[in-house]
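User: Teach me something about this protein's shape.
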Amino acid sequence: MQSLIIGSDHAGYLLKEAIKPLLSELDYTIEDAGPHDEESVDYPDFGNHVSRMVAGGKFDRGILICGTGIGMSMVANRYPEIRAALCNDLFSAIMSRRHNDANILVMGGRVIGIELAKEIVRAWATTPFEGGRHADRIEKFSKCQRSDQKTE
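Assistant: First, the predicted structure itself:
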């Protein structure tokens, strides 16, 4: 069973709550990083927490949701070893896993509806990483994050 941590801001709260039951159906152990209501909060607080937990290996994957998904994506991708993908459509969700081994899914709570979000989560959660030439590319990606190495 894989572990997953999920967090949002106030704009993503309802979508977060709507997809949690699906994650249980998909056999994930879930931790909800908050918030626990729709009161206004700062998205970087939740984006940082979820990203630290995934980057640190405490969780296999994460999901972040804010109004557009843009802010959470920017926060998450500042962390080494995080490959956060903003996916507001099925094709992006599938390809983010298949070719990029995305370990954090980001969605916009004010951009997509609940049913599409559920389809995106299902696709992202069940699509395997292809490896092969894509693994080589991911390694190049990781080198960019290491301060002691130059990229070409």
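Now, about its shape. The chain is about 45% helix and 15% strand. Confidence is low (pLDDT under 50) at residues 147-152. If you'd like, I can walk through any region in more detail.
User: That's plenty for now, thanks!
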